[in-house]
């Protein structure tokens, strides 16, 4: 006869698996949105689709793992999506502020571009100004929302993945006219990915195979 703890553990594992799977779908959906907008508004870059899809899926899995930890503390649907978007915005905000205060480090020129600062300074802008601040903000957000180390760790990893993926241009374009266009594209990607993550997870929770485990509707 099973002890009461075993079903609870199985519920948690099923819920996390559903969140990770939904995160993979969300990552791919967000990446597809980025490619489509880039094609229509800037230039076609479909050649990055094969590698980009793998990266987006991996990043989405990290975000999904964090979502599993944060979900019990987020508002109920349909407000869950709004709460998730706010968390992502908070995670990326320090990088945006630093990039704007520092000024441009990269100039777009036709199909390429030119660094406006020494390579070491540009690298620091990416590693510290973007990845570092996003990771710290993610850890802090995870801790404040869920009050446990697992949430802090998974949210830190998700923030790193999101900054390295959709947010990779933040330090490069800071202080340039391209920031407005970047914000629109990033907002669209975040919105689509968040909707897909929340709704795909809720849909999986209603499937008979999961018995509605691990999610709230």
Topology:
Elements: H1 5-41, H2 49-70, H3 79-102, E1 106-109, E2 112-115, H4 119-146, H5 149-164, H6 170-173, H7 178-205
Antiparallel strand pairs: 1-2
Helix pairs in contact: 1-2, 1-7, 2-5, 3-4, 3-7, 4-5
Explain this structure to me?
With 217 residues, this protein is mainly alpha-helical. The protein has helices at residues 5-41, 49-70, 79-102, 119-146, 149-164, 170-173, 178-205; strands at residues 106-109, 112-115. Strands 1-2 form a two-stranded antiparallel sheet. Helix 1 packs across helix 2 and helix 3 (79-102) packs antiparallel against helix 4. The protein is globular and about 55 Å long. The relative contact order is 0.18.
Quick structural overview:
This protein is mainly α. The protein has helices at about 5-40, 50-70, 80-100, 120-145, 150-165, 170-175, 180-205; strands spanning about 105-110, 110-115.
